[in-house]
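Thread: quick sanity check before group meeting

JM: Hey all, I'm pulling together slides for Thursday and realized we never actually wrote out the predicted structure for the chain we discussed last week. Dropping the sequence here so it's in one place. If anyone has concerns about the input, flag it before I start.
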Amino acid sequence: MTKTFKILAALLTYPTAEIQEVVSDFLPLLKDEALLSAASIERLKPLITEYQERDLVDLQERYVLLFDRTRSLSLHLFEHVHGESRDRGQAMVDLKAMYEAKGLEINSIEMPDFLPLFLEYLSILQCEEALEVLQEPAHVIAAIGERLGKRGSSYAAVMGALGQLTGPADAKVLDALRKEPDDNPDDLEALDEIWEAEQVTFGPGSPEDGCPKVSDMLANLQAEISPNISDISATSGDAKSDGGANNG
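JM (edit): ok, ran it. Output follows.
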């Protein structure tokens, strides 16, 4: 089990009290595993510090604004590749089958292409295989990272860490993604037009649902980092993540 992927998955899920309880252990775990460079780990410090110091409601509101209300920042990978085309449905089926083949069971309401869930899947693979699979969405990860960077978001460091692991993205594919509209969540008129066109369900971490699947994932991670972070038991059989039906 690769702890780095589980930690990055946790940082990209809807903020919860459970994450706040364990976030102080993330940097030591990352340094101990040493999959990321020291520079990548250092750049994660501001986000982790925000988890430690900011009010949970503020963290949650920021998350929703960024990832639920900004389509160009959607953490649903196929949104950037297939949009709402029929190809996306089959890709979802294939991805879910790939998860289940490795013993990762997901709830029927979860979207298989939700990036934290994808990272949870990678965490149960052999590291070499996981890094190879991670290369497939490298262009999407790079594009989201650039957009977050332009906003000055501390979440850009998570995408940067993943980018270090994927290596360079395909330049032509990345350039095409860069040309896609980067919507502004503060443009309420534009958002109203989008929401009138199709129903939007806030997904990963909707405040209404209390994120039970995120709680499951964090419970697994918390069990692994307590009481001794240098002695972590690998668990994968019941690993779950929240990938609720965000319209992205």
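AS: nice. The chain has 15 helices and no strands. Residues 194-215, 226-248 have pLDDT under 50 and may be disordered.
JM: adding both to the slides.
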